[in-house]
Amino acid sequence: MEGGLPGDRAAVVLIHLAMTGRMLERLTLPGVVPADETDGPVSAPVDRAIGPAGEG
Fold it and tell me: Is the CB of residue 51 less than 8 Å from the CB of residue 13?
């Protein structure tokens, strides 16, 4: 990317959509998805976009 950060435009859009979807779910249907089950769906798009934590 131009700013020297990992990922590209598609990665930014993917992470944005994942996070806004998670926030909407928490605001409108709290407790439907247990908090301990959200780490995977949130970290998967980030890992795919910029690589797993600790890499690089």
Answer: no
Q: How far apart are the C-alpha atoms of 40 and 17, rounded to whole Å?
A: 15
CA dist., res. 41 & res. 45, Å (int): 7
Q: Which amino acid is at 17?
A: L
Instruction: Tokens for 39, please give them.
Output: 């780490």
Cβ burial, residue 12 (10 Å; 0-12/13-18/19+): middle
- Rounded distance between C-alpha atoms, residue 13 and residue 3, angstroms: 16
In this prediction the pTM is: 0.54
How does pLDDT run across 1-30, given as a tens digit for each residue? 566 767 778 888 877 887 788 778 878 888
